[in-house]
From TrEMBL:
The chain crosses the membrane at residues 60-77, 89-108, 114-139, 160-183, 203-226, 233-251, 257-276, 288-312. Pfam families: Mem_trans. Its main location: membrane. It is found in: Cell membrane. Belongs to the auxin efflux carrier (TC 2.A.69) family. It is a multi-pass membrane protein. InterPro entries: Mem_transp_PIN-like, Na+/solute_symporter_sf. This is AEC family transporter.
Length: 315
């Protein structure tokens, strides 16, 4: 099953930490390599092939309506802080690449992959860019709260503009925007650059997951079992149920709806962990939630697929 390599990579990272091959002081440097080099390479390469006019807007609207509703609701319940933003992102950010692509390909074939790739092509653009702006606003909100100063409308406007600027000139949104703009030119990427980007992009998944395992070893995860389990339950069960409800109300039926629900039922993606490293908040909790949700998904995903198979037959 496609979940096995994910568990294996996390276990390899944990083993590397346990054996002393990676020191705690090196975790930050490894995180910078993933966040500042490998992730931008994957994002630019992915977006450089996206043609806006070819996207299925209905499936995009359904998927990101569910994710957005879950994100905003979590943020309202948790409070407008970087920790609240980390939990909100974990609740709605699926591991669509390492788990989703092989799983959907195996269960639903090429037709299912077409629907999934529509989501994957703008997944980072929508969720990661939005999350970056929310994180930047939350940082400034917390700083202003700590200073105890009154906030005027002008001051709030300046804060929003500054957050938007920081959210765009950033290792995640900037390569997304540049890649999307390049795609619209119709130009062909030089082979040497395209090959280099592909190699960097392919390295992201395994290294990011091993980094999760390394952090898992250096973190007191046992203390975070309960909040990690809450995130896992929301991600694995509430997210797909919410998506099914929204998709059904919007008139989406058949295989596209089933594939979207499958994507929503996937465990927490490793990119959420990169945000916690970048903003130094909730690292242990999110690390634990990735491990817990991936382990529980070995049970929940087969059950959800059985239910979705029945839905597909009756649709």
């Amino acid at each position: 099953m496609s979940l096995i390599p994910v568990v294996l990579f996390i276990a390899l990272g944990y083993g590397a930490g346990r054996m002393g091959w990676v020191k705690a002081a090196s975790v930050r440097d490894l995180s910078n390599i993933v966040f500042l080099i490998l992730t931008p390479a994957l994002l630019f390469h992915t977006m450089s092939t996206v043609r806006v006019q070819e996207l299925n807007l209905q499936t995009i609207a359904v998927y990101f309506s569910a994710a957005g509703l879950l994100f905003v609701t979590t943020l309202l319940l948790q409070g407008f802080t970087t920790l609240g933003a980390a939990r909100a992102l974990a609740n709605c950010f699926s591991n669509n690449i390492m788990i989703g692509v092989p799983l959907v390909g195996m269960v639903f074939g090429q037709e299912g992959l077409v629907t999934l790739f529509t989501i994957v092509s703008v997944h980072a653009l929508i969720l990661m860019t939005s999350a970056t702006i929310v994180f930047e606003l939350a940082v400034m909100h917390q700083q202003q709260g700590a200073q105890g100063g009154a906030r005027s409308y002008r001051g709030m406007a300046i804060t929003v503009v500054r957050a938007l600027k920081n959210g765009i000139i950033h290792p995640i949104p900037l390569p997304i925007i540049c890649g999307l703009l390049f795609a619209q030119t119709g130009l062909k990427m030089p082979e040497v650059i395209d090959t280099s980007l592909q190699m960097l992009a392919q390295a992201l998944g395994p290294i990011a997951l091993m980094l999760v395992g390394i952090t898992l070893f250096f973190s007191a995860v046992g203390r975070y079992w309960l909040p990690a389990s809450r995130i896992a339950v929301v991600k694995l069960l509430l997210h797909p149920v919410l998506l099914l409800a929204i998709g059904w109300m919007w008139g989406l039926r058949g295989l596209p709806l089933v594939v979207l629900a499958t994507a929503a039922s996937l465990p927490v993606g490793a990119n959420v962990f990169l945000f916690t490293q970048r903003y130094e908040v909730g690292r242990e909790e999110v690390t634990a939630s990735i491990a817990v949700s991936t382990s529980l998904a070995l049970v929940t995903i087969p059950l959800i697929l059985l239910g979705l198979a029945q839905l597909l037959q009756t649709a």
